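Record type: monomer structure entry
Structure origin: computed from sequence
Chain ID: A
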Amino acid sequence: MLRVNQLNMAPGCGEEKIREKLLQTFHLEPEELLEWHIFKRSIDARKKPEVFYSYTIDFSTKNERKLLQKYKGRLRPAARTDYQVPECQERFLPSRPIIVGAGPAGLFSAYLLAMAGCRPIVLERGAAVEERVRDVEKFWKEGVFNPSSNVQFGEGGAGTFSDGKLNTMVKERHGRNRFVLESFVKFGAPESILYEQKPHMGTDVLVDVVRNMRNEIIRLGGEVRFRSQVTDLEITGSRKKSINAVIINGCEKMYTRILILAIGHSARDTFRLLHRRGIPMESKAFAVGVRVEHPQKMIQVAQYGDKMAGRLPPASYKLTHSLENGRGVYTFCMCPGGYVVNASSEEGRLAVNGMSYSNRNGENANSAVIVTVTPDDYGAHGPLSGIEFQQRLEERAYELGGKKIPVQRFDDFCANRPTTKLGDVLPQMKGAYRLANVRSIFAEELAGSLQEGILAMDKKIHGFARPDAVLSGVESRTSSPVRVLRDENMESGVEGVYPCGEGAGYAGGITSAAMDGMKVAEAILRADSRAT
């Protein structure tokens, strides 16, 4: 199999045109091309108004060695690492593994363990994804809040109500990334996620994928239990501590010697439990800020130019700015054609997030604009200080909006005055909103940093700092403010306890969390094989 990079095609060209270009480029007869497929596709808009798709194509021919010699530098062998699913002999496991949390890390650790014959048990505090969708829609439309089934809690994790972005900065050479994407396709995602430079599924597709994955885990011998919150741990030993059992919903005890903590970044009560039971953890830096909305058409023109804006998929962006005060301001979780959503998970506190459906056909683009905060900012007096800082911000947002999402024009944010009238940009939101002074949520240094960052980003995307851009708050759940410590074998200071995923501080999105869950499953199976 051979690989060619940068096979450039005009937007709108179908597979037959790509095949013809491949034949022409390497002077092949149709019968010489045995097979081909798209390995990667991206949009190249560096020379606007000339915009095109850049393809990486893998293909095979009858005489590949000769072709490699003829087009040396243009062609190379197609290298691919297929993930090797680890094996396990069930009789050597000390007990059935218990996995706390059914987000990406929990589901993929459960999937691998189930494939290996280990019959894992997944405990999810929230509802099954189909029931969870109904609970979330009821909250957005009627304001009926369910503390155990919401945007943060429930099967699929917080990423289920997002854009379903699957790109990751994690570099690994064992094929885990490809395995995650192929698994999503197996469970219902479009095949395009295998080759798009910035793959995404959308919330509507994620729901089906998550449900299908759960059913496969069960088919393989695993068990998935909903509305099953771990409320306590039973840890034995004085010098060398180890897990012995978990308490579910305050009443049911389930024994285990293997406990995977895939709890997500919003399980604040569980973090307090872990701290109380002596699971080692520390506070860490994270970021907070606002959601900003612009017309998607404006972003299209900025990214692709007037000529091509309507011919290409909804455009995204990623912007950063370094401030003189040493902080960084950057965009995060950008949702083309998306919605700002009320992502609250606690009574009396309000947080926002962004979400897109698979077609990304909403009127607005939205993104978090966030500024870094460290333990120095929130006066760290223990590993849970960052959580307390988040909660204070969310309480201000809740009070400011009167239970609704507080919204402000950018010019009013700069002037530190409440917004009383919107401009041409109208909020596209899931959940009710209220005009307010979003700036007042933050300490002045953070608010000033956000303002300076947005003004600087306008130099990269004209109109980013337009006066009527809509800001909403508070974006506080960007990443976990806690890291649950683990060693080189993925195990915490308590034997048999394996922290993983975004909540434990080791991932930053759906794909990286899934891969981290896989690593923990692999570590458990390696430990099991050593025991034999």
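Annotation 1: The domain at 92-282+482-531 is CATH 3.50.50.60 (FAD/NAD(P)-binding domain).
Annotation 2: The chain has three domains: 2-77, 92-282+482-531, 285-475.
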